[in-house]
Amino acid sequence: DGIIFVADAIADTVYWIDPDTHTVNPFSTPGSIDGAWDLQIQRDRPGPYFVAESTVPSLLLVEPALPARATVSSGGSLVMPAALEVLPNAAGLVVADPSAQAVIEAAFSGVQTVASQAGRLTVPTSASREVDGTYLVTDLGDPAADPPVLPAVIRVDPNLPSPGNQTVVSEGGKLVRPMAGA
Q1: Lower Cβ count inside 10 Å, N or C end of the chain?
Q2: Is the pTM of this model over 0.70?
Q3: Interval 10-37: pLDDT, tens
Q4: Which DSSP symbol is given to 145?
Q5: CA-to-CA separations, 137 to 17, 67, 182, in angstroms, rounded
Q6: Strand pairing partners for 168?
Q7: Dmax of the chain from CA atoms?
Q8: How far apart (Å, rounded) are the C-alpha atoms in residues 8 and 12?
Q9: How far apart are CA 109 and CA 92, in angstroms?
């Protein structure tokens, strides 16, 4: 319907913006989402909305009709969830967690599975699911390491054991600070 939703990590709130009037209104209770990092929706229905809460490591569900939050998954392997994607068929969420150096699958039941951790994953910033079930992960690398670890796009196969399930798709070159991919 043209409305835009934005997760604001400093205001700890999800806002909705009316592009016609330029008004910004709180969608979640102001201050209720500590470090709102990313926001995703299920495209096949009008809600719910899912938010990665980075300060208190949680994945939240926000219903459009109820500007409140419910915890989908928290703690466990989550250290600082940054970017998330809703998995097909309402199977759950996939999350890039830069502090855990991991890609984590979180079922809506709250069960977490580490799809891949460490290895080439240094600072993963996003994970998006490919048609074949693998994940494409953007990673900032670590320029201060000795030797430096270059920014990269990494394919993760969650059906193989970690960290051997990582394949570098692209590294360095024009990649400077990859934050999201699709």
Answers
A1: N
A2: yes
A3: 888 888 888 899 999 887 777 777 777 7
A4: S
A5: 29, 31, 9
A6: 154
A7: 51
A8: 6
A9: 8
